[in-house]
Design goal:
Elements lengths: L1 H34 L5 E2 L2 E2 L6 H7 L1 H7 L3 H11 L13 H7 L4 H4 L3 H11 L9 H8 L2 E6 L6 E6 L7 E5 L12 H18 L3 E4 L10 H10 L4 E8 L11 E4 L9 H22 L7 E2 L4 H4 L5 E8 L3 H7 L2 H20 L1
Parallel strand pairs: 3-6, 3-7, 7-10, 8-9
Antiparallel strand pairs: 1-2, 4-5, 8-10
The protein binds zinc ion.
The site of zinc ion (ZN) has 5 residues, from loops.
């Protein structure tokens, strides 16, 4: 009998304890949800000045892919592995002090601590807070000009293919079309270009567009001049391919100026070639498309007039059934945009 009472009291106690624990958990959760806070303390060290879960996961989708969205795991990854380029986060780093003591960075980075922290991680070193301004300029003041090819109406009038050239080509050809999607090339490439703009801006690049609408009247020289006027550091011309000799051919292909180009410096030419290869390589890595051989030609008006490294990326064949339909899909366009942004990162990283 005694044993019985004892047992039921124990049971009651256990139930009460469990209830209390459940309540505690609920309260703890409610509090977290209310304040929308994420853990910023790891191994007793505070990272709240340099780490934001939301910012970090938004700007580092590859980290999310690798470790998931668990805030504890993301923080751990941030502390242990730092940014993808290998610099580790250190808690002793004081971003506010860094911001105040590196006034020369203001014109490159503007205001806001996050960029300074990112900059420090990319270009500063362990314990060495002397940033290398020259290198830093590379990423944060890089202006990318995006040129979505073609427009709703082609322009058959002719223009010289390079400054001072006697060879003329149509100002703007009408482009290819989707044999299955029934879309025109200019409609597809602008969708991808706008997604790429968003992606590049999220990564800290300045982006200039030659067009954001289809009903424009821009020749290929006009497009290059937009990049020149905005002092773009690189120019990406977005196109799709099409051919009438069968539907089998598909894949991503970069194009750039060839060696011996008479309008461009050797440095600009090799920059464009590198950019073309990185774009096609990273796009095909993202989408699984084959990377087709890079084409080098000195017949491209838009490249010959641009004063910076410039590449054309042919993002796929609209004469191939699956590629044409893929190119028309928003989620696939998104994947291409991410791949191309990786290509820009790779190009910048050298
Ligand atoms: Zn085209």
């Amino acid at each position: 009998m005694n044993k019985g009472i004892n047992g039921s009291m124990k049971k009651q106690g256990t139930i009460l304890l469990m209830l209390a624990m459940a309540l505690l958990l609920i309260f703890a959760r409610a509090e977290t949800a209310q304040a929308e806070t994420y853990p910023t303390v790891y191994n007793g060290k505070h990272y709240n000045r340099v780490y934001s879960y939301k910012y970090y996961t938004r700007t580092h989708p590859s980290v999310v892919k690798a470790v998931g969205t668990d805030p504890e795991k993301v923080l751990q990854y941030f502390v242990l592995c730092g940014m993808p380029r290998g610099h580790q986060a250190i808690s002793s780093f004081n971003v506010k002090e860094y911001y105040e003591s590196h006034k020369s960075l203001r014109k490159i980075l503007g205001k806001g601590y996050r960029k300074y922290y990112l900059y420090y991680q990319l270009y500063g070193r362990f314990g060495d807070e002397s940033a290398k301004a020259k290198k830093g300029i590379k990423i944060f003041s890089t202006t990318v000009c995006l040129d979505p090819g073609h427009q709703s109406r082609g322009m058959s009038a002719r223009e010289p293919i390079g400054p001072g050239s006697g060879t003329y080509k149509a100002k703007c050809s009408s482009g290819t079309y989707g044999r299955w999607s029934r879309l025109n090339e200019y409609q597809v490439v602008i969708k991808i270009a706008l997604k790429l703009r968003t992606e590049l801006q999220a990564r800290g690049y300045n982006v200039v567009m030659t067009r954001t609408r289809n009903d424009v009247r821009l020749s290929n020289i006009d497009r290059a001049q937009i990049a020149n006027k905005n002092k773009a550091d690189l120019m990406i011309r977005l196109h799709c391919d099409g051919q009438d000799y069968g539907s089998w051919l598909h894949g991503a292909r970069g194009m750039a100026a060839a060696g011996g180009n008479r309008y461009l410096s050797a440095k600009t030419v090799s920059g464009g070639q590198n950019l073309a290869r990185q774009l096609a390589r990273c796009q095909s890595k993202a989408t699984g498309q084959p990377m087709l051989e890079t084409l080098y030609t000195n017949e491209m008006t838009g490249i010959n007039w641009a004063k910076m490294p410039c590449a054309i990326i042919e993002m796929g064949y609209m004469s191939n059934p699956s590629e044409d339909l893929n190119l028309a899909r928003s989620s696939y366009q998104e994947t291409i945009a991410k791949g191309l942004a990786n290509g820009v990162d790779a190009y910048i990283a050298g």
